[in-house]
Amino acid sequence: MTVTIYDVAREAGVSMATVSRVVNNNPNVKPQTRKKVFEAIERLGYRPNAVARGLASKKTTTVGVVIPDISNAIFAEVARGIEDIANMYHYNIILCNADKKKDKEIRVINTLLEKQVDGLLFMGGAVTEEHLQAFRTSNVPIVLCATTDEQGAIPSVDIDHEAAAFDAVSELIAKGHKSIAMISGTLQDPANGYARFQGYKRALDTAGIAYNEDLVRVGNYRYESGIEAMKYFLELADKPSAVFSATDEMAIGAIHCIQDYGLKVPSDISVISVDNSRMASMVRPQLTTVAQPMYDIGAVSMRLLTKLMKKESVEQSKVVLPHEVISRQSVVSV
Amino acid sequence: MTVTIYDVAREAGVSMATVSRVVNNNPNVKPQTRKKVFEAIERLGYRPNAVARGLASKKTTTVGVVIPDISNAIFAEVARGIEDIANMYHYNIILCNADKKKDKEIRVINTLLEKQVDGLLFMGGAVTEEHLQAFRTSNVPIVLCATTDEQGAIPSVDIDHEAAAFDAVSELIAKGHKSIAMISGTLQDPANGYARFQGYKRALDTAGIAYNEDLVRVGNYRYESGIEAMKYFLELADKPSAVFSATDEMAIGAIHCIQDYGLKVPSDISVISVDNSRMASMVRPQLTTVAQPMYDIGAVSMRLLTKLMKKESVEQSKVVLPHEVISRQSVVSV
DNA sequence: CTGTTAGCGCGTTCAA
DNA sequence: TTGAACGCGCTAACAG
Fold it and tell me: Per the confidence metrics, is the pTM higher than 0.85?
């Protein structure tokens, strides 16, 4: 039923090795026979079988990427960066959603490895011992993308989340704010959660502002949780004059909550966050936020992976990309 | 280096056929030998090679899905529906971004087919003759997801975009609006573009409202293009009293543009759209929009594909899911 | 420049 | 209930 390389060989009157050569762009083929082969391919509608090829060559020219949540704009942007570089190097990517669940992450890593991907890009939350366990059983390179492991054993590319948060909060402090609330992610999440919280505390600390537990709420990164958290702050006897949100989406929730209470951003309360997702410009007032170079994180990590796959030497296996605060309209001096 | 089924066989003191049986849950294995084999697998850290398996069995338990734009929330939601059902039936999915470009779509379809996926889910814009061409060369089932082909030759699941637009505009008309502008998608896009535009015209027509070319702008589905289009309308001598946007994101752009002009939604201008993406509730005022059951479109199309892959008979290969207008805060009577 | 020949790792008869 | 042997479609030496 399906036409194989043998059929093409017969049709073109050559051996299968020759067909294989022209399909793989091997230069050692007389232009004339190459032409004959191409014609036979055309006539028969031959389509190379990537599975057989993968088995024979032990390469699949595909890299697996595990993404925590496909409907999260941040990760989608990272994925675009990955994609573009992958295309450039002629790798296909197979994207697997892991739903932010650890066991699904592990499962997905394993099926990807079973499928014999040539490399793996892991973006996700915490990198636990179980993850490392799964990674260790791999004989293809792996790079962490928008995450890091504690020990720094695995190549990774990310920003410095702690510093990004520090800079965001310092921006607020520079504008004269003293009562600064935080909408945090879960502290189990080392990057977007814990590290950003640490940055918040350090900024307060270096400014000599006392840390106040009542001014911190933990959200789940969603819009609604930003609203919930903000509601809590607005019911406080001493309302904060500014809010730092661990992510844009929660910040937007906070802004709308403030507005729903009849207050104004930024004149009544300033809001800043980290991410600079596309949504940051899609609110009024537009969100002041620390830009995380999502696309670049994807691109650089993919580039790093290609080097690893080709066994080229890499000067640095832990790369930290710069962040930058983008001033828009949601922060004002007090 | 890598441990194969032979290694396991030797370690367990059985033949490779037996190992294959236990790995594939074949019941014809004595419990005791099964146990021995499992232990050997454990000891050696054996991981079945899906590529070899695919070659031998001619099945990959993988379905390819081509997605037009991974950073579009609508498609991401469809993808979740696909995912969930795929998991339920033990298929892996390999997601390929096609960047909304026709040639990339074709290329991606071909590589997916080369990779011997067991089935293909295509979501995208227009289904051209070239697409059909590529589909015809496939010997695995294909279903269109959130699109349809003109001739209806290929199984598909979608909503009735024309009717959805008609209902949206009719909603406006029912509220007394007579001057209704439209922010359309490109007319080359049969579903989100052309069909929705047709629905707009038909609604006007059945209400006896004359169609006015000046009240239609074509956007590119992005926020900014919603702003641009709205700007145009606001500069008109006769400003419309309501706007119908082909998608939520452009509608949000329109809302913000109106607000930036110092006008109010909905008291000055009403806005309605189609999609009901998560963002619809993430604006003030919250967006009134026609709900497209994105998740269900994904789920149903994947379910349909599983049937096709198992060669089960399907009663209906063209399925049209219902839509519904969701009233929120952006539309008011005039 | 071209053809022959081994496998790649596994599923699957067919016998035993 | 188990094993031996063949073949899936292709790449990669090796010869010529």
Answer: yes
